[in-house]
Amino acid sequence: EKMASDEGLAVGYAGQDVPQIPTNAAEYVNDAVIEQQWAMKCMHHAETYFKLLSALDPKLLRLTKIDDEIYEEFIALFSNMKLDVLRKDDLKSTEAKEMWRPFCNKFEGRIEDYNFGTLLRLDASKEYSEENSILATRIQFYAIEVARNRQGLNGCHFQKPASS
After folding, report:
1. Structure letter (DSSP) for residue 76
2. What element of type H or E holds 97?
3. What is the per-residue pLDDT across 67-79, written as a single tens digit (0 to 9) for each?
């Protein structure tokens, strides 16, 4: 019987000792099972989000209770970011990290798991794939996807139901 729900990462099973993470970083080794479960959770999140884009008009989609605030803060700070096709440097360069850090930290305690790793599509017109995905924080995902939704960049994925 798993100790954690499938919402979180299972780190052990009932009746087994749960391994302790070393306090000395030099002693830490990656646990392949945890990494695999974390990757599966990221993929599940990505697949769920993409199904939402296909089923609902993205312009009407709300990802959080504070989408308006996230959008306003994001646009104010990152107005020059090209949202249709992101560059890795938009998230990973030293300059980008310096801009993203205070933005992300504004949402600590307000967005659940705001700093958890999440898959983000680089090209908004394409589906998730190894070539079209980058690891971002949850709040970066929300900021970029809320902006893409509001600006109509995800509309190409919405499949309107056939009228009867």
Report:
1. H
2. helix 94-105
3. 999 999 999 999 9
Please count the other Cβ atoms lying within 10 Å of the Cβ belonging to residue 49.
20
Contact 119, 134 (CB under 8 A): yes
List, for residues 104-146, the tens digit of each pLDDT value: 999 999 999 999 999 999 999 999 999 999 999 999 999 999 9
The DSSP symbol for 17 reads P
Asked if residue 133 lies in contact with residue 121, where contact means CB atoms within 8 angstroms, the answer is yes
CB atoms within 10 A of CB 19: 11
Q: CA–CA separation, 103 vs 42, rounded Å?
A: 22
C-beta separation of 43 from 119 below 8 A: yes
- CA distances, 112 to each of 17, 35, 50, 78, 138 (Å): 28, 21, 20, 22, 9
Phi-psi category of residue 135: left, alpha or beta, with phi > 0 → left and psi -120 to 50 → alpha: beta
Q: Which amino acid is at 78?
A: F
This prediction's pTM? 0.77
SS3 of residue 3 by DSSP: coil
Q: Which residues contact 106 (CB under 8 A, 6 or more apart)?
A: 73
Query: How far is 151 from 135, CA to CA, in rounded Å?
Result: 22
What one-letter code names the amino acid at 109? Answer: G
